[in-house]
């Protein structure tokens, strides 16, 4: 991966380890079908740089979906609250930081921000995807809705990536892990594991 892009990604705020980002980049580069990538949970643009770099190489685009109002854990007083992401009315708004990150990475021609709720956008979506990266809300409800809404848009030979998969409950919330297990039960096979990132393909 381009050294400068990688440095911008490492410097961007977010919750993705560089090793996970590089695994995402390699995964996106290796997608078999031609088609755009979509991530749920763009936040400040860290993962969008890794995926955007791969999208540029594959002559496609990354749709980076987020309502940009922060997850439950990012609200004022919560564990992952960032006071620099509050707008003039006191609400979380991570979109300005997202745009700064993507501009700094010079990826504005490849990374397309989609601002809205995952279920709303999924319901109106029509473009088959080569890669789906699920890293949005981490409640059971959110993760289940993301899978139900977006898996139908994944091409048959497309790849599904899930972040924050923690088989051990002491290490993190279980909703993404449950989604991962569910994907395995429904016929996906694991093709890559890097820290809490899992990549799956339909068998
Ligand atoms: Mg995550």
Chart the SSEs and their pairings.
Blueprint: H1 3-11, H2 18-29, E1 37-40, H3 46-57, E2 62-66, H4 95-104, E3 111-115, H5 118-124, E4 129-134, H6 140-150, E5 154-162, H7 175-185, E6 188-194, E7 197-202
Parallel strand pairs: 1-2, 1-4, 2-3, 4-5
Antiparallel strand pairs: 5-7, 6-7
Helix pairs in contact: 1-3, 2-3, 5-6, 6-7
The structure holds magnesium ion.
Write a short abstract of this structure.
The protein is an alpha/beta fold and 203 residues long.
The CATH topology, please? Rossmann fold
Number of helices: 7
Question: Quick one: overall form?
Answer: globular
Number of strands: 7
The helix content is 25-40%
In the sheet with the most strands, the strands line up as 3-2-1-4-5-7-6
Q: Main beta sheet, described?
A: 7 strands, mixed
CATH-defined architecture: 3-Layer(aba) Sandwich
Low-confidence parts: none
Tell me the Rg in angstroms. Answer: 16 Å
* N-to-C CA distance: 28 Å
Q: Helix-strand pattern, N to C? A: HHEHEHEHEHEHEE
Structural class: alpha/beta
Number of discrete domains: 1
**Average pLDDT figure:** 97
Hetero ligands: magnesium ion
The CATH C-level class name? Alpha Beta
Beta-strand residue fraction: 15-25%
Q: What's the CATH superfamily, by name?
A: Vaccinia Virus protein VP39
Your description of this structure?
This protein has a single domain, classed as 3-Layer(aba) Sandwich (Rossmann fold). It has 7 helices and 7 strands, in the order ααβαβαβαβαβαββ. It has a 7-stranded mixed beta sheet with strand order 3-2-1-4-5-7-6, with helices on both faces. Strand 2 (62-66), helix 4 (95-104) and strand 3 (111-115) form a beta-alpha-beta unit. The longest helix is centred in the first third of the chain and has 12 residues, at 18-29. Helices cover 35% and strands 21% of the residues. With 203 residues, it is an alpha/beta fold. Magnesium ion (MG) is lined by residues 15, 135, 163-164.
């Amino acid at each position: 991966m381009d050294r400068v892009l990688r440095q911008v990604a490492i410097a961007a705020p977010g919750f993705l380890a560089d090793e996970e980002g590089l695994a995402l980049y390699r995964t996106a580069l290796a997608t078999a079908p031609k088609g755009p990538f979509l991530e749920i949970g763009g936040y400040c643009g860290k993962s969008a740089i890794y995926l955007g770099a791969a999208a540029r190489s594959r002559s496609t685009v990354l749709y980076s979906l987020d309502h940009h109002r922060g997850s439950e854990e990012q609200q004022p007083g919560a564990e992952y609250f960032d006071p620099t992401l509050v707008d003039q009315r006191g609400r979380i708004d991570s979109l300005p930081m997202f745009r700064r990150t993507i501009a700094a990475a010079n990826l504005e021609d490849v990374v397309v921000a989609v601002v809205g709720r995952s279920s709303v956008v999924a319901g109106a979506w029509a473009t088959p995807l080569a890669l789906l990266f699920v890293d949005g809300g981490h409640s059971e409800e959110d993760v289940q809705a993301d899978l139900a809404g977006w898996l139908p848009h994944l091409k048959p030979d497309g790849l599904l990536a899930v972040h924050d998969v923690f088989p051990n409950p002491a290490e993190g919330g279980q909703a993404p892990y449950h989604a991962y297990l569910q994907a395995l039960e429904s016929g996906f096979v694991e093709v890559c594991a890097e820290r809490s990132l899992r990549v799956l393909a339909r068998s």
